[in-house]
Amino acid sequence: MTTDFDRQFFAPGRINLIGEHIDYSGGHVFPCAITYGTTLWIKKRDDKTLRFFSKNFEEQGTIEVSLDSIEYDKADDWANYPKGVFRMLLDRGYHFDYGLDLVYEGNIPNGAGLSSSASIEVVTGAMLNEVYSLGLSMVDIALISQKAENEFVGVNCGIMDQFAVAMGKEDNAILLNTNTLEYEYIPVVLEDASIVIMNTNKRRGLADSQYNLRRAQCEKALELLQQEKNINYLCDLSVDELESLKHLITDEEMYRRAYHAVSENERTLKASKVLQENDLVAFGKLMNESHVSLRDDYEVTGIELDTLVEAAWNHPGTIGARVTGAGFGGCAIAIVENDHLNHFIEVVSQKYEKTIGYPADFYVASVGKGAHEVK
């Protein structure tokens, strides 16, 4: 089906090693691209029609729209993500003289929290940049993709997912300041260990989850803190500064949300430093602390993720483990010594199925590169 297409593009999924739920609070995140992702094949048309097809959702058939009338349509489901990228570029004044046939295929588990939506958006943006010679940078493509998700799809996500998918570099994580978009590549040297992705197989849709509520609580907390402190983001504060301003946030739950954001930012900066020093044990400890904060202060884990992570913590081969992504289901990650890999998967898998009643899936991940054309 894809043999007669003109060109092929690929964008990865991503995991976030640490720095969760702070990319909309001006914090530092530490994601990396993985080798799982989305492939896009395209063929030029001689009219102004776009025809979207996904090998992952074949039952939905081909979704057809005109370049002259791209609007959000709930019935178009997954295709709203690439449609949104077209719409954002058209709104910026870019012109597309001809339509395309577009076929997508992803091997990222759908709804697992590994950024399948960002992968679809960014592979579309990278393709449009090349095919129509738009002259955009990969950072531009990340920002346009985020805008598509925020304004077209209606999910109030931060910049991390699209940035990691666009800017990923093989065997490196990205320390990204989500406030300024300053970033630094930091080598991920695991030596005798591997990253294991553990999928709860509990589907979660961000737009339907409590993601937007958590974000609103952080924005409200910021507003209250700004009465006494001249800051633009929660993560402009240190933990000590936040504690000294605690009297401004009388709602205990809201304070815990803010505390998570500020403490997670500090943990992420420490984590990038210890990874540069090749101190994997210290890195693992910070991963564990991150999960506890997301469980207790931010309350975005749930029994499925907690069961996986706690089973991982109890395994002697585990260096560190935590939820990755927005939570509410989706995936956790663990750094596991290679000698223990098979036993780790066997034991954690058994504990999870016994507690939850259905199996988890496990993937050993490699750190891959960002969106690119496949020659």
Commentary on this structure:
By secondary structure, this protein is α+β, with helices and mostly antiparallel strands. The chain folds into two domains: about 5-185, Ribosomal Protein S5, domain 2 (2-Layer Sandwich), CATH 3.30.230.10; about 195-365, Alpha-Beta Plaits (2-Layer Sandwich). The chain is about 40% helix and about 20% strand. The chain is built from ten helices and 13 strands. The chain has helices at about 80-90, 115-130, 140-155, 160-165, 210-225, 240-245, 250-275, 280-295, 305-315, 340-355; strands spanning about 5-15, 30, 30-45, 50-55, 65, 100-105, 170-175, 185, 195-200, 320-325, 330-335, 360-365, 370-375. The strands form three sheets. The protein has a six-stranded mixed sheet, with helices on one face. Strands 10-11-9-12 form a four-stranded antiparallel sheet. The chain has a three-stranded antiparallel sheet with strand order 2-7-8, sandwiched between helices. The longest helix is centred in the C-terminal third of the chain and has 25 residues, at about 250-275. The radius of gyration is 21 Å and the shape is globular.
Low-confidence stretches: none
CATH architect. name of the largest domain: 2-Layer Sandwich
* Helix/strand structural class: alpha+beta
**Main β-sheet: number of strands, strand sense, barrel status?**
6 strands, mixed
Specify the CATH class of the largest domain.
Alpha Beta
CATH topology assignment of the largest domain: Ribosomal Protein S5, domain 2
| Number of domain units | 2
SSE string, helices as H and strands as E: EEEEEHEHHHEEEHHHHHEEHEE
Determine the fraction of residues in helical runs and give it as a percent range: 25-40%
